[in-house]
Amino acid sequence: MNSFEESSTCAICGSALTDKIIDYIDHNDGHFLIVRDVPVQECIENGHQFVQASVAKKIEKLFEMDRQQVLKPKEVITVPVVELDMVSEVINRG
Ligand SMILES: [Zn+2]
Questions:
Q1: How far is the CA of 46 from the centre of ligand 1 (A)?
Q2: How far away, in angstroms, is 52 Cα from ligand 1 center?
Q3: Domain boundaries defined on the chain
Q4: Would you state the CATH architecture of domain 2-79?
Q5: Cβ atoms 42, 15 nearer than 8 A
Q6: What sign does the CA torsion over 55, 61, 63, 66 have?
Q7: Cα(77)–Cα(68) distance, rounded to whole angstroms?
Q8: Tens digits of residue pLDDT in 24-59
Q9: Sign of CA dihedral 60, 62, 67, 70
Q10: For the whole model, what pTM was predicted?
Q11: Ligand 1 centre distance from Cα of residue 85 (Å)
Protein backbone atom coordinates (compact mmCIF):
# COMPACT_ATOMS: atom_id res chain seq x y z
CA MET A 1 0.00 0.00 0.00
CA ASN A 2 1.26 3.46 -0.89
CA SER A 3 0.86 6.62 1.12
CA PHE A 4 -0.16 9.68 -0.85
CA GLU A 5 -0.43 13.39 -1.07
CA GLU A 6 -4.07 14.47 -1.53
CA SER A 7 -4.88 13.87 -5.20
CA SER A 8 -7.75 13.06 -7.52
CA THR A 9 -5.87 10.78 -9.89
CA CYS A 10 -3.78 7.63 -9.40
CA ALA A 11 -0.06 8.41 -9.05
CA ILE A 12 0.76 5.08 -10.75
CA CYS A 13 -1.61 4.86 -13.73
CA GLY A 14 -3.37 8.25 -13.77
CA SER A 15 -6.95 6.93 -13.59
CA ALA A 16 -9.62 8.42 -11.30
CA LEU A 17 -9.60 7.63 -7.58
CA THR A 18 -12.57 6.64 -5.46
CA ASP A 19 -12.89 6.59 -1.66
CA LYS A 20 -13.22 3.18 -0.03
CA ILE A 21 -13.17 1.60 3.40
CA ILE A 22 -11.27 -1.67 3.60
CA ASP A 23 -10.03 -4.22 6.10
CA TYR A 24 -6.25 -4.05 5.92
CA ILE A 25 -4.56 -7.43 6.45
CA ASP A 26 -0.85 -8.00 6.91
CA HIS A 27 1.43 -10.20 8.98
CA ASN A 28 4.73 -10.34 10.84
CA ASP A 29 6.40 -13.73 10.88
CA GLY A 30 3.19 -15.60 10.17
CA HIS A 31 1.27 -13.68 12.84
CA PHE A 32 -1.64 -11.93 11.14
CA LEU A 33 -3.27 -8.66 12.08
CA ILE A 34 -6.44 -7.22 10.57
CA VAL A 35 -7.08 -3.49 10.84
CA ARG A 36 -10.77 -2.79 10.27
CA ASP A 37 -12.31 0.20 8.52
CA VAL A 38 -9.21 1.71 6.96
CA PRO A 39 -10.02 4.61 4.63
CA VAL A 40 -8.21 4.32 1.30
CA GLN A 41 -8.37 5.81 -2.15
CA GLU A 42 -8.50 3.22 -4.90
CA CYS A 43 -8.04 3.81 -8.60
CA ILE A 44 -10.95 2.71 -10.75
CA GLU A 45 -8.95 1.10 -13.55
CA ASN A 46 -6.34 -0.99 -11.76
CA GLY A 47 -7.24 -1.02 -8.06
CA HIS A 48 -4.04 0.66 -6.89
CA GLN A 49 -4.65 1.62 -3.27
CA PHE A 50 -3.38 4.64 -1.41
CA VAL A 51 -3.65 5.62 2.25
CA GLN A 52 -3.02 9.01 3.78
CA ALA A 53 0.35 9.32 5.49
CA SER A 54 -1.38 9.79 8.88
CA VAL A 55 -3.31 6.54 8.35
CA ALA A 56 -0.16 4.69 7.26
CA LYS A 57 1.56 5.88 10.46
CA LYS A 58 -1.31 4.56 12.59
CA ILE A 59 -1.17 1.18 10.85
CA GLU A 60 2.59 1.05 11.36
CA LYS A 61 2.09 1.86 15.05
CA LEU A 62 -0.54 -0.88 15.42
CA PHE A 63 1.85 -3.46 13.96
CA GLU A 64 4.59 -2.22 16.26
CA MET A 65 2.26 -2.56 19.27
CA ASP A 66 1.29 -6.03 18.06
CA ARG A 67 4.96 -7.05 17.94
CA GLN A 68 5.41 -5.74 21.47
CA GLN A 69 2.27 -7.64 22.51
CA VAL A 70 0.69 -4.55 24.04
CA LEU A 71 -2.29 -4.51 21.68
CA LYS A 72 -5.65 -5.71 23.01
CA PRO A 73 -7.61 -6.99 20.00
CA LYS A 74 -11.31 -6.15 19.75
CA GLU A 75 -11.96 -9.56 18.30
CA VAL A 76 -9.93 -12.69 17.51
CA ILE A 77 -10.77 -14.85 14.51
CA THR A 78 -9.51 -18.25 13.40
CA VAL A 79 -8.14 -18.46 9.87
CA PRO A 80 -8.15 -21.80 8.03
CA VAL A 81 -4.89 -22.85 6.39
CA VAL A 82 -4.98 -25.06 3.27
CA GLU A 83 -2.61 -26.34 0.60
CA LEU A 84 -3.04 -26.53 -3.18
CA ASP A 85 -2.68 -30.33 -3.07
CA MET A 86 -5.87 -30.62 -1.04
CA VAL A 87 -7.69 -30.25 -4.35
CA SER A 88 -6.93 -33.05 -6.78
CA GLU A 89 -8.11 -31.43 -9.97
CA VAL A 90 -10.08 -28.41 -10.99
CA ILE A 91 -11.96 -28.70 -14.25
CA ASN A 92 -11.53 -25.52 -16.18
CA ARG A 93 -14.70 -24.59 -18.00
CA GLY A 94 -13.21 -21.38 -19.33
ZN1 LIG B 1 -3.87 3.15 -10.70
A1: 5
A2: 16
A3: 2-79
A4: Roll (3.10)
A5: no
A6: negative
A7: 20
A8: 999 887 789 999 999 999 999 999 999 999 999 999
A9: positive
A10: 0.75
A11: 34
